[in-house]
Amino acid sequence: MSVAQPKCRQIADALRGRIVSGELRVGDRLPTETQLQGQYGVSRNTVRDATGLLINEGLVERMPGRSGGMIVRSKVTLTFHAHRAEMPGPTSETDAWRSEVAQQGYESSQEFRLTIEVLPADLAERLHVEPESAAVLRRCVRFVNGQPSSVQDTYYPMDLAETVPELLSPRDMPQGTTRLLAERGYAQVGYYDEYVARMPTPEEASMLRLPPGTPVLHYIRTGYTSDRPVRVSVTPFAGDRNRIVSTHGDASVIARFRPEEEPT
Q: 199-219: per-residue pLDDT in tens?
């Protein structure tokens, strides 16, 4: 015996179907609350519960101003190839990221900032330094088509920055910090990656302009030389506009069936 879905879910399913099918396109207005109340014979609160589900999915957004109303939201999904990130080669990390964005038909931009921070205990443990040690934080807020997509926070131990003072530069480096460290004798020979889905902090929600209820894909990479860990990169990706993929083994075989996965 099947159980009938709540009315709010029925309304959300119907509207979602119209969006997915293309009947309602980006920028199109949804029926008004009054129209949906009349069509489904429900209260205003039920209609708002239904549209709230779609807002949380990132499918629609509320229009500002007195007229209000809902419109279908523009959605850009970037594919981040984790196995390609920071591969040795002629381009920097930023150039590689910009190339990947361009290859997917989007426009890229970023904002850079440098600060000195006290390391949280979990990051200090990853870097094998004392808790509450100072570290250099190099932050890149990355935008795709003008919309914030991810925030890359990379922490470097202070003793490393004293040896490689370029890490304290208040500007982004053309060659990238990975290559800079390699040039200074700190080539990273191994990486440990972690992936966690969670709800954003208030700061992350603000920086990434996340709709209510939208999670982040939390990507943490620790880079190691043959002697020590030298940095931790913490990158929250906006969960409604990114996907992370990684290939392993013979990339040429995979590329035969997935042409977008070029052999590396």
A: 999 999 999 998 777 899 999
The CA dihedral of 239, 143, 100, 19, to the nearest 10 degrees, is: 50
pTM confidence score: 0.77
Tokens encoding 64: 């500002």
Amino acid found at 95: D
Under DSSP, the state recorded for 165 is G
Give the integer Cα–Cα distance in Å for 206 and 209.
5
pLDDT in tens, 101-115: 998 889 999 999 999
What 155-164 contacts at long range (C-beta under 8 Å, 24+ apart), as own/partner pairs, is 155/117, 155/119, 155/123, 155/127, 155/231, 155/232, 155/233, 155/234, 156/230, 156/231, 157/127, 157/129, 157/133, 157/230, 157/231, 158/116, 158/133, 158/134, 160/186, 160/230, 160/231, 161/136
